Amino acid sequence: MSPRGSAGVASFALLAPALVLTTGCSLGRPTVAPTGFRVKSVGTDAAEVALDLDLVNAGANEIELLQYDYTLRLDDGSSYSGRWAALLALPPETTTRASIPAIVPPSALRQGREWTLDGTLRYRDPQSVGRILYEIGIVRPQVGFQAAGRVESTGGS
């Protein structure tokens, strides 16, 4: 890379935060509140679980939700790590319910068994400058979430 090219990259890196501040990219952070652990179905080899989440956008602008990365752990040592596309635009001043799936051994779902959930939700500003900064990798906002509880019921719905 020529000295001029590297200077251009450095200049852009210094300019990007100022560009964000002056173009109105004042995106609020969504909040993620895990609200439930539901056993959806139980087979002989696997059980499907739904992890319910309340997604809150308290801000004045829509937030584009992109992807969940999460791990569900049960106290018998079994775990499920997943990545799930959110594919949702969260309207301003709104709470929305979402569910993400997990597959675990049926034996891990004994009633009263403890579970923990850890994850992140990636999102981006739908405004053009925020979108550009996300696409080129300068801004990759995410919010974390955690929950713990006990398996209440092992029957599928």
List keywords for this structure.
single chain; 157 residues; alpha+beta; Immunoglobulin-like; four-stranded antiparallel β-sheet; three-stranded antiparallel β-sheet; 7 strands; 18% helix
Give the gist of this structure.
The chain is an alpha+beta fold and 157 residues long.
Approximately how much helix is present in the residues? 10-25%
Adjacency order of strands in the biggest sheet: 4-3-6-7
Would you identify the regions where 5 or more consecutive residues have pLDDT less than 50?
Answer: 8-12, 18-25
Task: Compute the separation of the termini in Å.
Answer: 59 Å
Which word captures the global form?
A: elongated
Q: How many structural domains in the coordinates?
A: 1
Structural class by sheet pairing and helices = alpha+beta
Tally of individual helices:
2
Helix-strand string: HEEEEEEHE
What is the CATH architecture assignment? Sandwich
Instruction: Please state the average pLDDT score.
Output: 83
Q: Biggest sheet, in brief? A: 4 strands, antiparallel
What would CATH call the class? Mainly Beta
Number of strands: 7
Strand percentage lies at over 45%
CATH topology: Immunoglobulin-like
Which radius of gyration do the C-alpha atoms yield? Answer: 20 Å
